[in-house]
Write a structure and sequence with these properties.
Layout lengths: L5 E5 L4 H13 L2 E8 L6 H14 L8 E8 L1 H7 L25 H16 L3 E3 L15 H15 L4 E3 L7 H23 L11 E2 L2 E2 L5 H16 L5
This protein binds zinc ion.
The site of zinc ion (ZN) has 9 residues, from helix 7.
């Protein structure tokens, strides 16, 4: 098997990374996953990962392509960096810099450094992340330029030829639902709805058409808004 046919997916258990995992399974012969425990308030998302992997393995014959899962503990590292609304029970608000206080400075950059270390060890070429700058929370580490620069940095710093793939970069949240349907039909849409987690507050007690969540935090609003726009844009089936 060629190394060109291998990928490592940054897989949190949310809607975006689950769609990215399906995207990778659709394209590559060997796909491994990596998750990060950084003390997130919505650590419940980590418990969603194994059931999602299992469910994706039953779609489109993807099971044999799905390799091992890796889990990296960054709790100490990111707790040492400082308090944000993503990791502490403080209200979600905008900061003086114009960034939401759910932004964890350095988080995605650390994710990629750790993921690339695993990819180097495992001989995996494509590193896939669900970052998006079309319909997002304003995080500067989700920008296309950030990730292109990261690819160059990792390749120089680790003497590799990684390719960072961001299939959602130019999609809005409605288009992300469309992509899920294209990749895995109703089965994949069902997995995304029922099994993935996006809510920043970690709420899995309230169920909506678009999945579980509090319904009011920025992550729920993005997910619900995308679902509504997708449903409105669907042509009635005759
Ligand atoms: Zn929420």
């Amino acid at each position: 098997m060629s190394q060109d046919d291998t990928a490592l997916v940054l897989f949190s258990g949310g809607q975006d990374s689950t769609t990215c995992l399906a995207w990778a399974l659709d394209r590559f012969a060997t796909v491994e996953t990596v998750g990060f425990d950084y003390g997130q308030r919505h650590a419940v998302e980590l418990t969603c990962r194994a059931p999602i992997r299992e469910a994706l393995g039953r779609i489109n014959g993807w099971g044999p392509r799905l390799g091992p899962d890796h889990m990296i503990d960054l709790k100490g590292a990111l707790a040492g960096v400082g308090t944000t609304a993503m990791t502490e029970a403080v209200a979600i608000a905008m900061t003086a810099q114009g960034l939401p206080n759910t932004f964890v400075p350095g988080r995605n950059l650390m994710f990629f450094v750790a993921a690339a270390g695993i990819a180097a060890r495992r001989g995996l070429k494509h590193i896939v992340g669900g970052m998006c700058e079309t319909d997002y929370s304003g995080y500067p580490d989700c920008r296309d330029d950030t990730l292109k620069a990261m690819q160059v940095t990792l390749n120089l710093g680790m003497q590799q030829r990684f390719v960072i793939e961001t299939p959602l970069m130019w999609l809005d949240k409605a288009a992300t639902w469309v992509l899920a349907e294209q990749l895995g039909g109703g089965s994949l849409v069902g997995v995304v709805r029922e099994l993935t987690h996006s809510c920043y507050l970690g709420d899995r007690t309230h169920q909506h058409d678009w999945g579980y969540g509090c319904g009011t935090c920025p992550a729920c609003e993005l997910r619900a808004g995308g679902w509504d726009r997708w449903k409105r844009s669907e042509k009635p089936r005759g």
